[in-house]
Amino acid sequence: MTARERVAGTVANYVDERTGAAAWMKKNLNKVFPDHWSFLLGEIALYSFIILLLSGTFLTFWFDPSQREVIYDGDYQPLSGLKMSAAYASTLHISFEVRGGLLMRQIHHWAALLFMVAIVVHLLRVYFTGAFRKPREFNWIIGVGLLTLGIVEGFLGYSLPDDLLSGTGVRIAEAIIQALPVVGSYLAFFAFGGAFPGEAFIPRIYTVHVLLLPGIFLALITVHLMLVWYQKHTQYPGPGRTEKNVVGYPLFPVYMAKAGGFFFIVFGVIAFLSAVASINPIWLYGPYTPGQVSAGSQPDWYMGWLDGLVRMAPPLETHAFGHTISWNILIPGLILPGIMFTGLALYPFIEAWISGDKREHHILDRPRNVPNRTAIGAMALTFTIVALLNGGNDIIATTFSLTINQMMWFSRIGILVLPPIAFVITKRICLSLQRADRDLVLHGRETGTLVRMPSGEFVEIHEPISAEKAWTLTQHEQPVPLELPATDARGLKRPGAIKNKLRNRMSRAHAVAVPKVSAQDLKEIEHH
Amino acid sequence: MSSELEVIKDPGVPAHIHRQADLDPQAEKKAERQVAILFALSTFGTLLFIYSYIWISEDLFIFFPVLGTTNAKQLFLGLGLAFSLFFIGAGAIHWAKTLMPDEEVIAMRHEMRSEDEDRRELIATAKAGAGAAALGRRSLIKQSLGLSLGLVGLSPLLLLRDLGPLPGKDLEKTSWKSGTRLVTDPGDRPIKPSDLEVGAVAQVLPAIAEGGHRALSDIGKDAVLLIRLRPEEFQLDAERLAMTYQGIIAFSKICSHMGCAVALYEQQTKHLLCPCHQSTFDVTRGAKVIFGPSARPLPQLAITVDQEGFLIAQRPFSEPVGPSYWERNSQ
Fold first, then answer.
1. Rounded Cα distance, B251 and B317, in Å
2. CA atoms within 13 A on the CB side of A39
3. Which of A23, B26, B94, B235 is most buried, by CB atoms within 10 Å?
4. Which helix (H) or strand (E) holds A448?
5. Minimum CA–CA partner of B12 in chain A
């Protein structure tokens, strides 16, 4: 026994005698994780969160969350002598006088952007591969919660410096609160401690941003990861992969080294971006005052789609009985996002209800094999992208020499017309890809070798694909639509006839598929 | 349907292919060296970071292709940190990929649901517990508990009451009164009509007493834009026209949509544009909305001049400025 092994044994013994952790550790150090690049997306989100905690803690050492008015006398000459809030002045101090302060601000902001990108792309991966199916519905809902909180947390975070851009964003948030029927002006006055902007808002959202929401994040992320751990990771279809097993690498040492290394890579890339690509240069925007605004005011990207919806809203207000209801704010600012997030959260349950599938699923779907789901995803994505594009309509218009009006009308019509088109096209593409898979399994791969037959005909030689590939392309189940009968065994009408009929119809639409190749098909073709 | 047809057989996990480093000691040594070099690059990054922190001057700007002229301290601090972190990760992953075991292993899953016996026992325990508490029989306790639990949430809600005052009539009022002078923002100088050329725009605020303080909350309601046109360019009724003075017209600068500053004036078309959501207002027609999401024109401030010839407000705004709210009476 070497000295090192002796030390390791002593430490392990010490810990186990006090915690009894050996049995648990033994099992979990050998925990198997399947390998795939798309499984790293959630990891990027997790690591960005850790980077946010580290860099954010650094920023709190100097940031002064106060709207008290001060006269600036710091290093940045162009703003010298200007009245501004202590929050803005201290952000300038971090940027210009604290060594590495600007770098940390950039890291914090870049990490926030990447956090949201990673969450969204991770969500798309989970959605399109059907990883949200039983038993993972809870984790899907936690994920939707994290996405929602992330948007709020990001918005509060970039509002803290109290610069002209972020203050404008807060003004818009205030207008949304104020637009709520009956309670709007009351809630706005409570949130801002009086009329906008007041002096209470920044200190309040600071507490929410650095304490309340990070606490909730930590709790939700912990549960999210524990469930992944306990339920074991899903895996892509492939040879040897079944619903009953998990094929991959053991946690210790391979997965730990890879995942730990990946944290440093994510951190390194964020630090690199922060070094070379400066974002949110608040010193150029100036301090916030409600009487000014800069052209091309844009929120961060994860708020952009909301802003885009608000921009394209038609000018609708109801004026009646001495009251005003602003549909131009309520619909794009609250009602539509509410519907979108509710639909997102409920999707696993809706799909299970339509398909009638109550089994556990651990093998991921190839998106083409579930055309309806993939098409719904493409539809929702198209809707959001049109909204996001419209959120930058002024920038796009100036960049591509269009008028704002053209952009706005494109979005207003596009947001209604393009999503259904995306649905139809995506469903067609999925079915075509299924057909292509079928051809590949039946007739093999095109070799590119042309042969001239004695008859003078030219044919391309096809080569059979490997057994592994053939399995991967045919392992999926053929969906069977629900057929809820209208009458029961005694010929009596069952209750809920219309509901059942609707469910049957949706189930049929959901179960559309090209018949997959069976072993018989292959044998038959071999005889030819 | 699928059960009737025979599926293509699963060939099982493919045989493991050994890597170069598993077979060839020389390749193994090489991989080891590569990992060490990656870790060494990280150390170099840390040294660069320390050097930049202490010795590079804050005022040093250097030119870099693509980046342009950039602050050297900021750049090298960032690059140092990026290198020091990235190459630890690169080293660890290269180590895992080339030298650690890469044979896939298979673990079995268990179904999420508990054993039937456990489930039965749980139900029995729950039933026994509920029976012992006998909540079903004690409806008085059940109902009073339900009531108190329902109400207990009121206390923390009530505690939030002092977050702010009630709005009252605050959203309807601005600091503009009859005879309030219009002063420039910034500068606080009173304005004469002759200060504004035709086509010019100025942001003004109500004058305040010497040494008085102007809160941002006031600016958020008081900010006004002055625009001078040729009087014949207006297409206004007599009442609205009487609110202008020699072609000078005054509008609230706070957008009637969501309260941004309506800061963009297009001199050629005489349109005011809000940069937040592109609501567009036609100045010649009393800031009527001609495009975008806003549903109401910008409130117009009636102006005239006092005896000394400075611009003043004839009277307060006749309607609330800024975004809509429930209590707003918009006719």
1. 10
2. 17
3. B94
4. strand A445-452
5. A240
Parallel, antiparallel, or unpaired: how do β-strands B105-108 and B68-71 relate? unpaired
In single-letter form, the type of residue at position B183 comes to V
**Residue of B10, B17, B11, B317 lying closest to B171 (CA atoms):** B317
Please tell me the number of Cα atoms within 13 Å of B70 on its side-chain side: 18
For A77, A328, B186, the CA distances from A81, given in Å and listed in that order, are: 9, 40, 13
State the best of B5, B325, B327, B329 to mutate against chain A, taking most chain A CBs within 10 Å: B325
Strand ranges across the sheet with B201-206: B182-184, B201-206, B224-228, B248-252, B300-301
Q: What is the 3-state secondary structure (H, E, C) of chain B?
A: CCCCCCCCCCCCCCCCCCCHHHHCHHHHHHHHHHHHHHHHHHHHHHHHHHHHHHHCCCCCEEEECCCEEEEHHHHHHHHHHHHHHHHHHHHHHHHHHHCCCCCCEEEECCCCCCCHHHHHHHHHHHHHHHHHHCCCCCHHHHHHHHHHHHHHCHHHHHHHHHHCCCCCCHHHCCCCCCCCEEEECCCCCECCHHHCCCCCEEEEEECCCCCCCCCHHHHHHHCEEEEECCHHHCCCCHHHHCCCECCEEEEECECCCCCCECCEEECCCCEEECCCCCCEEEHHHCCEEEECCCCCCCCEECEEECCCCCEEECCCCCCCCCCCCCCCCCC
Has this prediction a pTM greater than 0.80? yes
Could you report the per-residue pLDDT of A162-172, keeping only the tens digit for each?
Answer: 999 999 999 99
Interchain proximity B85–A275, CB inside 8 Å? no
- Walking along chain A (528 residues) 10 residues at a time, the average pLDDT comes out as 84 88 86 93 97 97 96 94 95 95 96 97 97 96 97 96 94 95 95 94 97 97 95 94 93 91 97 94 93 84 94 93 94 95 97 92 96 96 96 91 90 96 97 95 91 92 91 91 82 82 91 89 78
ipTM of the complex: 0.92
Residue A110: which of A277, A305, A264, A299 has the closest Cα?
A277
Q: For B165, which of A176, A189, A290 is closest by C-beta distance?
A: A189
A287 phi, psi to nearest 5 deg: -70, 160
Backbone angles phi, psi at B109, to 5 degrees: -95, 160
Chain centre distance of CA A388: 14
The verdict on a CB contact (< 8 Å) between B327 and A185 is yes
Q: What is the pLDDT of residue B3?
A: 45
- Report the C-alpha gap between A365 and A472 in whole angstroms: 11
Token duo for residue B46: 């840390």
Cβ-based neighbours of A95, under 8 Å, separated by 6 or more: A76, A101, A102, A105, A282, A283
CATH number, span A32-365: 1.20.810.10
The alpha carbon dihedral of B37, B39, B40, B41 has a sign of positive
Taken in order B214, B216, B222, B224, is the CA torsion positive or negative?
A: positive
